[in-house]
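Entry 14: structure prediction run for SWIM zinc finger. Input pasted below.
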Amino acid sequence: MTRTAQTYAYLRPSAVRGTAEGQSIGLETSGGATPAGWEAHPRFFSGFLTHPEATAAGLLCVADVAAARYYQPRPDRWRDPVVTGNGDRLRFESFSACCGVYARLDVLGDALDGGDIGYGTTNVDVNVPLRDALSRVGAGDPLRLDVGPDEMVVTTFDGPVVEKKVPLPERWLRGFAETQVTAAAFDVRAELPAVEAVRFLRSLPRPSSARGASTGARWIVPAGRSLRATTRPVPGAVCLPGPERLSALTRVLRHATGLRVHGPAVTAGSSPVASAWEIALPGMRMTLTLSPDTARGFSGEGGVLDALAADESAEDADLVSVLLAWDPAVDVADLAAQSGLDPQRVRAALTRLATSGRIGYDAAEAAYFHRELPYDTGRAERDNPRLRAARALVDAGAVRLDGETATVTVDDHSHRVRSADGRLTCTCRWWAEYRGGRGPCKHALAVRIARRAGESRTTTAAQDTIRTGATR
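Run finished. Output tokens:
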């Protein structure tokens, strides 16, 4: 697996410091994007926390996930969470090292007092002393939050005094893209009051230290004000894959005011699917999104492939990108009206932008949101082996179209691709194993690319005929 080194540079370590006004959580920022352009150490917020103990617990939860590896547990390098300022809130995000758990803490305006919230995205330093200090934060004393260095620090230090070089797999970036596709298919499936939420979450198994140990997937259905387990998927059920992966939520349970569970629609024959578990906190939301299996990272789900395979999505993404404005909730209908594109093409453009980390999805508000990460838009497409293989098959003339069916020849093997219920099926081993649950196989993807290319040529020929007739 390809690995690159991501370097975080900070002016000083993040810490909980004493001030004349009491204590302050100082979160130091690395280089990041803002409306004014790239900044070495952007500053997003300086003000008081209305619920300091709950905020500290939420930050620790995000940090716990960044430091965890749930599949084949072993010691790993910590990765610094991403923070985005959207003008009315701060979002802290992280992935587990195995890329199977996505964590996000949304600190909303009600939890922040006394300062404007900026716009932009950067990494924040999370170190061992900071974690220890956050675990001792109490509820009684005033507590400031500073996201970014103050002016004194900026003028005192000539350059970064803290650097971390962390090897990041390419799948970490792809995980950001896949989770927004996954979450966009979710609906609220259950809501629990605080007491029942805490009782249910505390009943779940804890992570095992055994290598690769997992309790597997469970199915949960609403039962009055609580949840109960069922032995198999049924309509209205929610999948809880690897329930021990929710253990990070233990940090925030004492502050919980409720629980909402999000997931896709399932049927009696459904395979395990992803789900999102959202803890309501005072002025905040803490959400963990779980991949369909402990052994499956989000990076390999293939949800972005159809959007990447559409040639027009690249130009659409360029158009939509200039209309983004760090909005905490991206309005698809509004983007469609501004861009002149239909909503389906806008969503495809947003998915393409998500491959460079520029778009996320908030299941709690059923809306996309804007962030910026230091990756180029084409990187995920170049690094996706299925998409590369599909384009190579098309270029090699391996696809033969025949109405609703197609034949794809690979070496001395031929695979039949058919259209059924709006999606393509294939006779290959990949389709037999996943049944489309991890995106299209390379053969179906190649057929889709070839058909779009044929439709484009037909449209171009028709336009040329019209223009030729008009000039006679």
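Notes: The two ends are 59 Å apart (CA to CA). Will compare against the previous run tomorrow.
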